[in-house]
Amino acid sequence: MSIDRAIEQQIINFTRVMPALPQTANGIMNICNSRFVDARHLYKLICVDPLLFCQTQALFTIYYPKLNTIYNSIAKIMIMLNVNTVKNHIMPFAEKTKDALAAKSINKKTLEYQSCFWRHAVATGITARFIAKERGIDPAQFELYYAAGLVHDLGKYFQVEGTSHSELGGLVAKTAGLYEGLLDVILHHHDVAKSKGTNADLVCTAALADYFVNSSLSAQQKTGSKATLGKEVWQRLSVSPEFLEKHKQMLVSEIKKCDAYIKVEN
Ligand SMILES: [Fe+2]
Ligand SMILES: [Fe+2]
Prior knowledge:
Bound molecules: fe (ii) ion
Strand content: under 5%
Radius of gyration: 17 Å
Oligomer: single chain
Helix content: 55-70%
CATH superfamily of the largest domain: Hypothetical protein af1432
Largest sheet: none
Low-confidence stretches: none
CATH topology of the largest domain: Hypothetical protein af1432
Shape: globular
Number of domains: 2
């Protein structure tokens, strides 16, 4: 399956102006309009919005085109570029969504879909980070594992009939200049055998987190995808199906904390 040329161009153009999700837009604007921008709060909100995460990465590639394959940390990007540069870049994307919400121009069905998209992304990110932690992955990599879960279904935002969300997400990731490990996650989380050597662990972790969220958590975090997972993922990660079930309550409460945080910010 490949993406039609006209759709491909539309997605590329849209990626450059992709707005914030309704869940984060008001919070982002509150922070950006305050006298002193709170870098920690801005960072937290960017990290729970897969679209703003991509926009921040895209900004980074403008300033450091040669570093884009090794950078994936929003915290580091904010330090290197300065919080005001990041703020000025993402503000128009949040403003667009805030205005659309105020004008009630996003219909109820779209809002519900985006809410589901958002919850699934965050729940998968939190679960992927937890798996990395439990498996003794270097803590410096936790943010990358979280990002893998956050962006794995990026292509589902677009809902283009007859095209795979992996391909659509891959196109967005390439346009935004996302780290190639994250690109691999987006392209191969439903077919882990295709992931490249060093990225296989990251791809398998995102696939397991996705499977767990779709099979074990409440309907709010699910995307409707059938929950299946190949044997190779369990083997590669050396974990058993009971492993995550044992920690289900803890993961549910972590996801709820994030939900509460967003509500406070908005
Ligand atoms: Fe998916
Ligand atoms: Fe998913």
